[in-house]
Amino acid sequence: MTAKLAARAAGSAASSSEALSPPLSQAVGYIVVLVIGLIIAFCMVFVTRLLKKTVGEDNQKTEVFMTANRSVTRGLTSSAVVSSWLWSTAMLGSSFVGYDYGVAGPFWFAAGCSPMIVFFALLGISCKRKIPEAHTLLEIVRIRYGKLAHVIYMILCLLNNLFACANMLLGASAVITSMTGMHIIAATFLLPVGVALYTFVGGIKATFLTDYFHTFTIVIILCFLTAKTFTIDEIDSVGHLYDLVKAAGARHPVADNHDGSYLTMASKGGILFGILHICANFGLVIMDTSFFIKAFAASPSSVVPGYVIGGLAYFAIPWAGGTLASSIVLGLEPDSIFPTYPRRMTATEVSNGLVLPYAFMIVAGKGGAACVLLITFMAVTSTLSAQVIAVSSIISFDMYRTWVNPQATDGDVIRWSHYGVVFFAIFAAAFSTMLHYVGVDLGWTLYMLGVITCPGIFPTTFTILWKRQSRMAAIVAPVLGFFTGLAVWLGTAHALFGEVTIKSTGGIVPCVWGTVTSTFSPIPYSLIITAFNPQNYDWADFRKERLAFEVDATATRDALTEELETADVHAQTNLKRWGRIAAYWSIATFLGHWVLWPLPMYAAHYIFSKSFYIAWLVVAIIWLWGTLFVVGFYPLIDGRAQIIAVWKGMRGSPPRRESSTESVNVVETSAETKEVDER
């Protein structure tokens, strides 16, 4: 690991003199980042107004702005779940760990995401059963543990959102600068502009719809890469690509891989990254308010299918995209077609996420560079939208409504939601700029992220699933976990490299130890503190506070689904059944993606044969094309009723209107689920 750190330092020194000339002009960069961003924003504003006119979705109502009347369908939920994890990092990061560790890197990247996305289905349906009126995770914490816990978890969630945004902006800005020559600070500040505009106007529904459009476009372009790759003479077939990657392992063996091969899961660096990544991503999911908002916005019968289907579909994007892109770059680095020929990629180029752009440029020239520019822009704006709406909800509900004005009206909360959108967009760009100027890049944030995001994982999970965790445990455990993880991270960096700097703290070993400590140390802290004074929380207490504003009765009935309109027994049975399904899928996904599939190959030190590599890559590509159906066509099929309603409204049919007799509180309609919380 010391050698790799030294190589990265050397690469940084060399990068300025060996930088690749941008294949596209600055004008193209500004057109994509600013002009296309504003066009998409205005289109979403138009769609938002169209929905209000045709089907009565008034985004000036808080329940519509923040939770879309809790009626989002399975298809749109699945697409939004994929979009939530389709960070620019997912494509750029999976490619660069493939370059560093071979086929193990993209697999561990994908396996580090899908299990916790599926696990969130369990948390989401539990929240639906116990506190269906909630808007944010922090409301749940406040009701159960009080205001001190509320402040602590607010800080943890805001840190999570801030570092997540920085991770996205650093990677995306570096790629946009490399592709167009656009100044990196200009890219950093202009990327959030369109996001802030359509989120400001449309709220969570605009986020869902933009997620759909962006994700569909990104996956189409990735599928284009899988088809176009095998049409160029230098690659020609999957079998020949295998030969190229095998030769790359002979030229530049990987120190921590079995036999130095890129074609093995027996990669020490790869599995260390996998451990780091799965822990960090559990933190990013559970402590990310945007995931809770999307779960609250989905109808109860859509939460589990949406998150399970979305989590499994997402797996193919980093696996297929990262494996193919890194194989192309590793195989063709010594070829004259390679963008940096005759030299290899520098460590800085790799760490900045340029493996995927170079792969696209090899396959499709300037058109490939334009494709990378477009998908990077769409990925970062789509995920930024979720982060912006999450922080906006914290500012409006958990700061303003809780601490400043408990009697806030619907209009007050909407106004502060708008303030939150604008403030966080500007602050995230400024924070990312600061990190850039102190020498932080995508690789550093990707590795260290878990140290910040993980301390709240288990205390938060216990808050939702375990009635015994005490108030003191919920307050103290994440704080102790945070400082324990921080101490281990910095201490390990100093022990291994003799210094605590950005370079040393960005090494994978300090980050793994710090992340694992941040993740698991709160468990004994919580259990020990709880043992002295265990709580016996009554889940029904969640219903004593009215959290929802007035909403459309028709939309509310739709959101609570057919099973809640028939009979209490039938409703309880269905909600419990969804909870069991979520638990089974969570276990199965973790065992499949983390134990049964990869670990036997790691233990056997298996090196891929040509036929196995062909099967590996072909299955990944087929899976990716299946993801295209999930994110692109399933939402249209599942949402056909609303599409028809919008079409009829455009042709002159009267829209659904709210009235004083229709307007009811969610809690009245959802009272049928009260006894479900007894479990």
Automatic annotation (TrEMBL):
PANTHER family reported in the protein's UniProt record: ACTIVE TRANSPORTER, PUTATIVE (AFU_ORTHOLOGUE AFUA_1G17570)-RELATED, PTHR46154
Topology within the bilayer: Multi-pass membrane protein
Taxonomic lineage: Eukaryota, Fungi, Dikarya, Ascomycota, Pezizomycotina
Provenance organism: Phyllosticta citribraziliensis
Protein name per UniProt: Urea active transporter
Keyword check for Zinc: no
Compartments in which it is found: Membrane
Bias (Low complexity) ranges: 661-670
Keyword terms of this UniProt record: Membrane, Transmembrane, Transmembrane helix
Chief subcellular location: membrane
Record bears the keyword Membrane: yes
InterPro entries tied to this protein: DUR, Na/Glc_symporter_sf, Na/solute_symporter
PROSITE patterns to which the protein is assigned, alphabetical: NA_SOLUT_SYMP_3 (PS50283)
